[in-house]
Amino acid sequence: MIDGTRTTFDWQANSTDIAVMGYGSFEQHSAHLPLLTDCIQAGYFARQVAEALGAGLLPTMDYGTCLEHSAFRGSISLRPETVMQIVRDLAAQLERQNFRFFVLINGHGGNFSLQPPARDINAQNRPLKIILANWWEFGDPALSVVNEVHAGAWETSVMLALRPDLVGADRRDLTVESGLQQRDLTMFGVGHFNVSGAIGQPSKASAEMGREIVASVRQNLIAYVRDRIDRLRQNPKY
Fold it and tell me: Is the entire prediction scored with pTM above 0.90?
């Protein structure tokens, strides 16, 4: 693996055609998790993938689309159009430098704007392909938690495994207004669901659970990305 701590000469001497980047979001995570939570998680799993594949690791992108959190001070969102253009610009730069795979490890469910440019670029049959993966989709289903959406037991457990020094003790469980569902985030901000900003039960989080989640995600995510790269090397046509 090679990353941003190395020089341009190191990158020129490295023959990898795979670039990996975590894409996070700078947003509220209630009273117990930092605004950088999604960035920390996306960056961690991006590094795991890059190390496994001997790839080039780009710095994690800390700003995504988090409009649903805009009522909470500190949550900074880019417009969907801006995120889409960032992906296009990065892909073009990597393509010019003879990278053939751009692996995006998404850390925020609200980054819906990552998918359109990825699909569009792949459909153009350009030399570079984008592999987009939401890291949380690769955890062991046996470790899933019902009604978890944001800053609950699952996400808090992962942070207890990765950065316990950043996890606070004020873990406020979900109290959602009756009738609202996750799909309603298109119409209402997170504050309509819970004034504390959490949608889940962070009080049930544990470091042990977090380590189990992290281990399963790491194994399944690396296997997935490796498989997709192999498939695209054999048949790159969309």
Answer: yes
Distance, CA of 222 to CA of 46 (rounded, Å):
9
Q: Quick one: average pLDDT of 187-203?
A: 88
For residue 1, tell me if it sits in a domain.
no
Domain limits for position 43? 8-234
How many domains does one find in the chain? 1
136-163 pLDDT tens trace: 999 999 988 877 889 999 999 999 999 9
